[in-house]
């Protein structure tokens, strides 16, 4: 048989096989996306919370207010070996931070892990963590900023819910002098851990909001961390979800670049909604202004889509930083009266 004719006769079959594999792959992805995230057990009186430092360092003195407060909620608290440890900016060496977090993940008596602070460092150990025992005995992972790395990794790979919230370095040392918003946001951590009521948050109306309502699993965190995870096995998955983002100390041009990353990588295409939290923008250098506001940057990237968008939501590097359950279904409602984000049962 003519070799060219023989090879050409195989093309339709091979094309069909490729199409079949592609459809099968899409079906698997769709099935995976439809699987609900698993919530670790909520905490009850006497349960243990472990404190560890997967990123920046913190002193024993600086975690004491958080320990006292969490004990007042009825929990027991234990400190990991990285509390008080320091390796330059980190809470101990990479190996020390890895072992400390791994031990807490493996310890079935610990029901939640409070990351002491953010900074930088979680990405240096994420690929060495073993989640085998965590999958059998999951627990709430708590934190924000650099801890976005852990939230995204848990979300994309294991579909466990986690808590994006303030950490030990945000607990006031003197509660009598704390502002109402500080007290309220820290109490939201207790409510999230106990699961005694569905979380519900409000934000004031902002003229740049895009009105609308949507239901979807909530996922997100620090924008710079999300960008840095692109292309890795910890990369954020956003299809069919409500995405929230926040950041601190970034120039407007840098925020524009990060949102372009989300746009070009398709992370904005199939969202159910977008929640823009606190952004403490770094002032433009003299004679080098970017020329666009944060709101203009964001709306330019989502102009081709119709989902609701809200700004100035109380999450981020600020006092108004409420506990949000990543991987849990929420309802976002953006109206002319304001924005509500409500956890769904």
Order of helices and strands: HEHEHEHEHEHEEHEHEHEEEE
Distance between the termini: 65 Å
**Share of helical residues:** 25-40%
Q: Shape from CA axes?
A: globular
* Biggest sheet record: 7 strands, mixed
CATH domain topology of the largest domain: Rossmann fold
Count of domain modules: 2
Oligomer: single chain
Structural class: alpha/beta
Query: What low-confidence regions span 5 or more consecutive residues with pLDDT below 50?
Result: 1-34
Report the CATH superfamily of the largest domain: Murein tetrapeptidase LD-carboxypeptidase, N-terminal domain
**Spatial order of strands in the largest sheet:** 6-13-12-7-8-9-10
The radius of gyration computed from the alpha-carbon positions, rounded to a whole number of angstroms, is 22 Å
CATH class placement of the largest domain: Alpha Beta
Q: What is the CATH architecture descriptor of the largest domain?
A: 3-Layer(aba) Sandwich
Q: How many helices? A: 9
Question: How would you characterize this protein structure?
Answer:
The chain is 34% helix and 21% strand. It is of the alpha/beta class. The protein has two domains: 48-194, Rossmann fold (3-Layer(aba) Sandwich), CATH 3.40.50; 200-343, Glucose Oxidase, domain 1 (3-Layer(bba) Sandwich). It has a seven-stranded mixed sheet. The radius of gyration is 22 Å and the shape is globular. The protein starts with a helix and ends with a strand.
């Amino acid at each position: 048989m003519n070799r060219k004719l023989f090879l050409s006769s195989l093309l339709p079959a091979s094309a069909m096989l490729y199409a079949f594999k592609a459809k099968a792959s899409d079906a698997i992805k769709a099935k995976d996306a439809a699987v609900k995230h698993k919530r670790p057990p909520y905490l009850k009186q006497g349960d243990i919370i472990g404190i560890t430092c997967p990123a920046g360092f913190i002193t024993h003195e600086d975690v004491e207010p958080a320990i006292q407060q969490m004990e007042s909620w009825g929990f027991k608290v234990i400190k990991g070996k990285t509390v008080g440890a320091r390796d330059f900016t980190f809470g101990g060496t990479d190996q020390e931070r890895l072992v400390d977090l791994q031990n807490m993940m493996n310890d079935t008596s610990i029901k939640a892990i409070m990351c002491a602070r953010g900074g930088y460092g979680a990405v240096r150990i994420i690929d060495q963590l073993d989640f085998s025992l965590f999958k059998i005995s999951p627990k709430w992972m708590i934190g924000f900023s650099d801890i976005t790395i852990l939230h995204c990794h848990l979300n994309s790979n294991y579909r466990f819910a986690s808590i994006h919230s303030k950490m030990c370095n945000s607990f006031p040392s003197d509660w009598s002098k704390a502002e109402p918003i500080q007290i309220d946001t820290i109490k939201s951590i207790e409510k999230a851990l106990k699961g005694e009521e569905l979380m519900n948050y409000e934000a004031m109306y902002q003229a740049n909001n895009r009105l609308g309502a949507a239901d979807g699993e909530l996922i997100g965190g620090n924008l710079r961390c999300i960008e840095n995870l692109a292309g890795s096995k910890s990369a954020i998955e956003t299809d069919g979800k409500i995405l929230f983002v926040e950041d601190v100390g970034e120039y407007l041009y840098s925020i524009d670049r990060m949102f372009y990353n989300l746009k070009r990588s398709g992370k904005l295409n199939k969202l159910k909604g977008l929640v823009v939290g606190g952004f403490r923008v770094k002032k433009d250098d003299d004679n080098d202004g970017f020329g666009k506001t944060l709101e203009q940057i964001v709306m330019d990237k989502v102009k081709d889509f119709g989902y609701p968008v809200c700004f100035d939501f109380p999450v981020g590097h600020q006092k108004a930083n409420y506990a949000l359950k990543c991987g849990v279904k929420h309802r976002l409602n953006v109206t002319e009266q304001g924005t509500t984000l409500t956890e769904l049962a």
